[in-house]
Specification:
- The chain folds into 2 domains: 139 residues, Butyryl-CoA Dehydrogenase, subunit A, domain 3; 110 residues, Nuclear Transport Factor 2, Chain: A (Roll).
- By secondary structure, the protein is α+β, with helices and mostly antiparallel strands.
- The mean pLDDT is 87.
- It has 12 helices and 7 strands.
């Protein structure tokens, strides 16, 4: 019995890091938790007496579980890729209050895993995503990843390299100063609430892109250009009686409420002090799972 408790304690010590692996692989907080639970079931049925590094072993186990889930998802075409056939599917945002430090949430979105990066990860093949996430984000050697994929080490290295080029090409370097980004988001909010079109345009990049995921009930939305985005922001601000600055995947964002009910979570990509992208989750079903409170 004491050995079981010891194994459970060791697993719990790795749980936050394993959820981070699952989140990067799946883009879903619930599915990431499911993957971690499945890893516990497998651990509890396995003799790990000869395992020298339990954390590394569990990381590859979670990676294998997530790979199977991604392959199953792809074969059933459950979720559209971002911008496929006019639809938009955003990954789950990780939302925390500006003033509150949550160690588990910090682990979940460490290394600046913003929504924009998560969207690019969604476009990778399951094998590319595993090779990139495990190696580039968690330092797992290619020799350990290759057996999970059923490939050679050289082939696995090529997968990660191809994924890395796609990620770097699709996610230009964004501002990293959260205080500066908060000022930009605050200026965006103030201008939206005040209906100040010119002030809004001044904080938007001319080629800004907005993506909105409304789920099955609300049509997806994609808009480009500062003028169009500013007009929509002013219109939407009339419906959101209460908009709060928060951290979305570790960077300043906004949660909007109406009558205490969450309307949206907004994530901003900011470069050189201008908003270049806004990703908005408005799906009421998914918002209800995020435990947002006004």
């Amino acid at each position: 019995m004491s050995e079981n408790f010891s194994l459970a304690d060791r697993f719990d010590a790795e749980r936050s890091a394993l959820r981070a692996v699952g989140y990067r692989m799946l883009g879903s907080l619930a599915e990431a938790e499911d993957a971690v639970q499945e890893a516990w079931f497998r651990l509890s049925r396995t003799d790990v007496g000869d395992v020298k590094n339990l954390g590394a072993w569990l990381t590859t186990v979670v990676g294998r579980i997530c790979l199977d889930m991604l392959r199953s998802r792809a074969s059933r075409r459950e979720d559209p890729l971002p911008e496929q056939d006019g639809s938009v599917r955003l990954p789950d945002p990780v939302v925390t209050a500006l003033a509150r430090v949550d160690p588990e949430q910090e682990v979940l979105v460490a290394d600046s895993v913003g929504i924009a990066l998560m969207i690019v990860l969604e476009t990778l093949s399951p094998d590319e995503r595993l090779a990139f996430v495990l190696h580039d984000m968690f330092d797992v050697p290619f020799d350990d990843i290759a057996p999970v994929l059923g490939r050679t080490t050289a082939s696995t290295r090529q997968l990660a390299s191809r994924a890395r080029r796609r990620v770097q090409g699709a996610t230009p370097a964004a501002d990293t100063d959260n205080a500066r980004k908060r000022d930009v988001v605050d200026a965006f909010l103030t201008a939206s609430r005040g209906g100040d079109f010119d002030a809004l345009v001044s904080v938007l990049h001319p080629d800004v892109v907005v993506r909105s995921d409304g789920g099955t009930l609300i049509p997806s939305l994609m808009r480009r250009g500062a003028g169009d985005v500013a007009s929509q922001a002013i219109t939407y601000a009339r419906f959101a009686a209460d908009a709060r600055l928060v951290l979305v995947n570790g960077t300043p964002g906004v949660v909007s409420f109406a009558e205490g009910r969450p309307l949206s979570v907004m994530s901003f990509t900011i470069q050189d002090g201008l908003v270049t992208g806004i990703d908005i989750l408005t799906d009421p079903d998914r918002l209800s799972t995020l435990d947002l409170t006004a």
